[in-house]
Amino acid sequence: MTTSEVAWQRLDRRTVIVNTLNAAGVCVVAGVPTGIGVGGATSPRLALAIIVPAALLIVGVVALADHLRWHKTRYRVLTDRVELHKGILVRSRRSLSRERIRSVDLTANLLLRFFGLVTVKIGTGEQTGTGTSLALYPVSKAEGERLRTELLDRTPSGTGDGRRNGVLAAIDLGWVRFAPMSFVTPTLGVAAFGAVLQVAEWFGLQEGVITWTIDRMRDLPLVAAILVLVVIGMVVGVIGATGLFVEMWWQYRLEREPGGTLRVRRGLLTSRSISLEERRLRGVELVEPLGNRLVGAARVDAVATGLAKQKESEKTDHKTLLPSAPRHVADRVAAEVLREDVSPTSAVRLRPHPVAARGRRIRWGLACVAAVVAPLLVLGWLLSVEVLLHLAWICAVVLVPVAVVLAIDAYRNLGHGLTGDYLVARSGTVRRGTVALQRRGVIGWTARQSIFQRRKGLLTLTATTAAGTGAYSVHDVGESDGLAFAESAVPDLFGPFLERG
Questions:
Q1: What is the pLDDT of residues 322-369, one digit of tens each?
Q2: Where does the pLDDT of residue 218 fall: very low under 50, low under 70, confident under 90, or very high at 90 and above?
Q3: Euclidean distance between CA atoms 306 and 128, whole angstroms
Q4: Helix (H, G, I), strand (E, B) or coil at 245
Q5: What value does the mean pLDDT of the chain take?
Q6: What is the mean pLDDT of residues 48-55?
Q7: Backbone angles phi, psi at 428, to 5 degrees
Q8: Residue 319 DSSP label
Q9: Where are the beta strands (DSSP E) in 36-146?
């Protein structure tokens, strides 16, 4: 079939209804506090007279604009490329080579799911440049699945061991217990207090809320009052973190499809389908945040070429293959993803680093404590504020032991090794990461030494790769051991610069 014979397709016509309902919802959410601020309790009719016509006008404009957008948007899939034409005032014509397509992700929020629609994002996986992705918003769910299957079919490239196809992992409700064991919990607790004060301000009740809280805490000692607020914040944070985990990972399934694609499906209110070509996979990273590590949990991230960095607003990385789960489950999934009998992250005994690396971490930890305590001491002395001086020594007494313990733990977590086709490196304490990177995925080595590292005979090796974050480091390794490791992992990269005795 020639190019001229391939028919153009349109987006689903129900996009006009969806966007009109979205605009109406935004008007309601924004209109209530605005109406209260404009008219308040004294003149609600004035508020309605201003807000309602404005909301109707906005909804009407959105409906008309989206109808024109639908009418002017069309796409088609050819044998060698995908084309998208769109635009009202400014026409845009985009084309992606099918050979460069690396991902077709399907996303649907609650409203789209109600109408049986999905948003399709077709990407090349490149992190720079324009024209690297196409978005079809929205199409029917069946059309989205058809596009995903057709554009990602890599059957000729081989599928490996067929016994490893199918479902590799599925959600276990017991994993929910790991959700509160993260820094998200206290963050949500603090955010909840801020949200209460913000809503109270909309209704002119902020001062009353603060006064009511102080009255309830008046009879309690200061320490007890602080503990009560901390407990309330932590309870709210636990509930919020649990709810966030459920929304993100509900109905989670990790599957390997016969065409050579790993597919992650998840989501409660917003469903997500994320696909990753196996030929782009260069390894995995076992991530163990401190809270999860204390309860024996870890998550698995993919180290793959072409995984574009997520925006700050997108906290759910496309690279996550397994959420926080028991460590033995993470090891099993990592092995299945890499088609290995045992995960490289646990198959090798990592070599420890010199004791000098421990001293460096202790000094860093104490320097961080000094950065907190010193300003309090200086301000307390200059301003003659006794409270700041007391706060300084309290912080020192509390933070110094914590800093030393974390520093020692960070040193114990350092390690590197080789197993089969993979080099393995581990580091971190608050976030411990163990990366298993294919040797053929390393395109260069960087050896870096600060003046302090040179005095101790240490260096930091960084493996440069086109996959994942682009660079993975072996921190504070001994000079001779590190250079030998780099040469053994990828021969001839460092070879010309080494003196052999």
A1: 999 999 999 999 999 999 999 999 988 999 999 999 999 999 999 999
A2: confident
A3: 10
A4: helix
A5: 87
A6: 79
A7: 105, 155
A8: T
A9: 74-77, 81-86, 92-97, 103-108, 117-123, 133-140
Q: 69-83 in b/e burial notation, b at 16+ Cβ within 10 A? A: bbeebebebeeebbb
Q: Are 265 and 322 in contact (CB under 8 A)?
A: no
26, 207, 230, 277, 454 from 199: Cα distances, Å: 17, 12, 21, 46, 56
| Cα–Cα distance measured from residue 373 to residue 399, given in angstroms and rounded to the nearest whole number | 9
**How many angstroms separate the CA atoms of 343 and 114, rounded?**
41
Q: Find how far residue 406's CA is from the centre of its chain.
A: 24
Task: Indicate the DSSP class of residue 341.
Answer: S
Q: Listing from the earlier edge strand, what are the strands of the sheet with 117-123?
A: 133-140, 117-123, 103-108, 271-277, 261-266, 253-257, 166-170
In this prediction the pTM is 0.85
User: What is the SS3 assignment for 219?
Assistant: coil
What are the tens digits of pLDDT across the range 425-452? Answer: 999 999 999 999 999 999 999 999 999 9
Residues 6 or more apart whose CB falls under 8 angstroms from that of 27 comprise 55, 58, 59
Sheet holding 92-97, edge to edge: 9-10, 74-77, 81-86, 92-97
| Section 78-99 average pLDDT | 89
The SS3 assignment for 141 reads helix
Q: What type of residue is 20?
A: T
* 3-state secondary structure at position 95: strand
Distance CA 93, CA 273 (A): 26
Beta-strand ranges (E) seen in 229-352 are 253-257, 261-266, 271-277, 281-289, 297-304, 320-326
166-169, long-range: CB within 8 Å, 24+ apart, which pairs?
Answer: 166/255, 166/256, 167/253, 167/254, 167/255, 168/254, 168/255, 168/256, 168/262, 168/333, 168/336, 168/337, 169/252, 169/253, 169/254, 169/322, 169/325, 169/329, 169/333, 169/336
Give pLDDT, residue 127. 56
What's the token pair of residue 393?
């020594």
Q: Is 284 helix (H, G, I), strand (E, B) or coil?
A: strand
| N-to-C CA span, the chain | 66
Integer Rg of the chain from CA = 28
pLDDT band at 219 (very low <50, low <70, confident <90, very high): confident
Two tokens, residue 339: 């088609």
Tokens 């909309």 -> residue? 202
Write phi, then psi, for 262 (nearest 5 degrees): -95, 130
> What is the maximum alpha-carbon separation in the chain?
91
432 residue type, one letter: R
Tens of pLDDT, residue by residue over 124-151, are 766 555 557 889 999 999 999 999 988 8
Q: What is the pLDDT of residue 310?
A: 45
Query: What is the C-alpha to C-alpha distance for residues 480 and 454, in angstroms, rounded to an integer?
Result: 12
Question: How far is residue 40's CA from residue 22's CA, in Å, rounded to a whole number?
Answer: 26
Mean pLDDT of 458-477: 93
